[in-house]
Amino acid sequence: MRTLSVLTAMLLPVVAQAQTAPCGGDFRAFLRGVSEDAVAQGANPDAAARFFAGLRQDPKVLKADRAQGIFQAPFIEFSRKLISQDRLDKGRRKAEEWDAVFDRIEREYGISRGVLLAFWAFETDYGGYQGNFNTANALATLAHDCRRPELFRPQLIAALELYEHGDFDPATTTGAWAGEIGMVQMLPKDIIENGVDGDGDGHVMLKTSVPDALMSGGRMLSSLGWRPNEPWLQEITLPAEFDWSLSGLETTMSVAEWERLGVSGRTGALDDGRLPASIILPQGRGGPAFIAYPNFRVFFEWNQSFTYVLTAAYFATRLEGAPVYDAGNPAPGLAGPQMQQLQRKLQARGFDVGEVDGILGAGTRSAVRAVQAELGLPVDGWPTAELLQAF
After folding, report:
1. What is the pLDDT of residues 96-135, one digit of tens each?
2. pTM value?
3. Residues 304/367/281/278 CA torsion (nearest 10 deg)
4. Angle at 82 between CA 361 and CA 314, to 5 degrees
5. How far is the CA of 250 from the CAs of 76, 245, 247, 285, in angstroms?
6. CA angle 166, 167, 169 (to 5 degrees)
7. Which end of the chain is least crowded, N or C, by CB within 10 Å?
8. CA distance 203 to 197
C-alpha cells in the first residue's frame, strides 16, 4: 500500500539564505547558482561539482506535488483507510521486536512508543515502502520550481552536506517524491540536525537501520517541542448541553476546567487536571470527540494536514491499547467541488482560507466557525450542505 510519506515535514521552517540564482529559468543555470551558494557556505568545490553534475529534473515529482487529493477525505473515512487490523498487529509485533530501542527513546526523549510506531507505519508501512524517487533529483526539481523554493533549496544543499559525509549518493539514494529519506521519512536538513547513530556503527542510515530511524525520529520530535512523558490525545464524551463554540484548537483550557463543563474520558479518566487542552470535533458535534493535549500540536510540525495529524495521533493511542473511537452519526460533509464552492464563498466574504483546494484545512475550519456563529448555527466547525446553502 502506498503510504503518506509524500507530505511529511514539508512545511518545516527553514532559514533564509542568500541566493545567486532564483527559482525557475534555465535548470542548469539554477543548479550552478545553488552550487555557488553551497560553496560560499563552506562546501568543498570539487564535491559540489560532482554532486550537481548529474542532477536532472523529474516531471513525475511535480505531478505528485500537484496531486494531493487524499487529504480531501474526512477523518472517519481517512482513518479507516489507514488503520487496518494488520497494521495494528504488525505495529504491536514491531514494538516487541524493538522493545529495547523504544525503551531508550522513552528514557532519553520521553516519547511513547505508540507515537513513533504510528509515524513508522504511515510513512513507510514499517519500512516496507520508502519511495523510489531519486532524492537528489526530487529536491533539485522542487527547489527549481517556484512553489516552495524556500523549503527545498536548503534541503538540496543539506543533501550535498550528507554526500560530503559519505551518507548520501546522488545517483542511488531514493525516497519520497518530496525528498524525505528512510523509514520515518526525514528531509536531509533534519537528518543533519537530528540524526542519531542508534546502532553504533558510525553512520546515520535511516533507510536500513531501525535503531537509527527510530532514534532520529524521536530526537526530531523532541527538538520540535515534545513535552516528555505527557499524553497527546484521548477520546472523550461530551454532555448534551456542551457549548460547541468552545471546540477547536483555538480554545485552550485546563483539563480541570473542561471536567467542570462535563467533559470526561470515554474509557478512562482524563490526564493531569493542570494540563492545557483543546476539544477536537473532526466531523462536528455528531461525530467522534477528542481532547488534545500540548503534544498533539507537535504533530503539526511533522505534517500540517489536520486529517493526517489527527489520524496519526489517534493511531498512536490505538497501538497503546485505546479502543476504536465512537464514530457517532455526523452530518454528511461536503464533497470536493462543494468544498471548493464553500471556500470561494468564504473568500468572497473576506475570509482567508488559503488555496481553494477542496480540503478542510485550518483556515477553512476557522472561517466556517465564524459563519456558523453569524448564522446562528451550532459552531462546531463542520461544513454541511445546510451551511453551504445558507449564505
Report:
1. 999 999 999 999 999 999 999 999 999 999 999 999 999 9
2. 0.89
3. 70
4. 65
5. 22, 10, 8, 16
6. 85
7. N
8. 6
